[in-house]
Structure formats: C-alpha cells, structure tokens
Amino acid sequence: MLFGGTAFSQVGTFDTIRMNNVYFNTIKTGMWSGNFRSGFIHQTNGSFNFGIYGNAASGFRFRWLFENNKLIDYSTDAREVMHLDSSGMLRVKNGITAPNPVFGKVTNSEYAKVVILGPNFPGGEGSKRDISYEFQNAGKAMIRSYRGTSWDTYLQFLTNPVSNAGQGVDPVVQMHISHDGNVGIGTTTPQSRLAVNGDITAKK
Q: Is the pTM of this model over 0.85?
C-alpha cells in the first residue's frame, strides 16, 4: 500500500527481453504517489516512459516522458514530451509532426477551427504568430498575424525574393491587412482601403 508523501512502488516486472538479437530491455510497471501525479506507470530502462496521472480535481492525464537511460523524476513535468488530458486534448511539447495531419470535422452544420495561441504582451510584431511553408535548401513563404495595443489585430503575407537567400532568413512582407481593413501592397502602413507602393498593371 502507498501512504502520504512521494513514493514509487514496483508491482510487477517482466523478464529481460531481446529485440533484434541485439537490444536488451526490462519493462516494469508500478504506482507513483505524489501530489496530482499519482497513478500507474509503465517504465523501461531505455529512454521512454509513460504513465497515467491525476485526480478528479485536476483532471486525469496520460503522460509520455523522455529520459536518457535513467529513472525519470515523475514529480515534475520537466521531461514531459506529450500528454493526453481528460477532455481528449493532445498536447505535444514541440508541435505535432505527422505526415498530412487532418483537422476539423465533416459533420454537417458543426463548426470547427484550428487555433494558434498568442501572448497578450508584448504588443506589435513581438506577439507575431506564423504559418510557415518551408522548402528544403530553398526559401519559405509565411502567413503572419500579430496583435496591436488593444483588441486590434493584423495579418500579413510574406514571400522570399530570389535575392533573399540563406537558411533562417525570414521572407519579406508583401501584403499587409490592418485592423481597420486597409490593405497595403509593398507597405505595412496603408492609409486607405488599398495602398500600393509600386506600379499597378491592369487589363480590361
């Protein structure tokens, strides 16, 4: 039995197993008790561990934790790489990386959205959030949004000119939509519904 405080109790151990006749591993199960992280743990002596944590007040979570061939400190979230919470929300430390991820629903009359969270401070471009299309050994194109000093928000479209070469170099703002609906092409400070910094060519 587990009492107050923090403890790890091993409730079962499988024999050492051999993978591909080279890699040896030991798989253990146990119970961890400590604050809201109490729950079932499945652990190996490799580098990836996971467990179920939580209570009714904090909401249960299934956590995946990473460590390099040593025991994980289950009392913190420092080594968490991903968790699934009680509402069904999957949170990944450095973003979701999967081929062709699909978002939304096809249910008739049911609203869906993809949310990219941003900070309240600082205002201006310091709060920017980007959707980036990045091409291997080449340029990138981006859609950017940032907030102003109040409820105002801005939207920009950026592309990479031929001369703007180099890995890690941001593309250039080509089109800007201000909070008031003014659109700028070649300018980020449009003072009218459409402001163009450059030539305009039209064909009837």
A: no
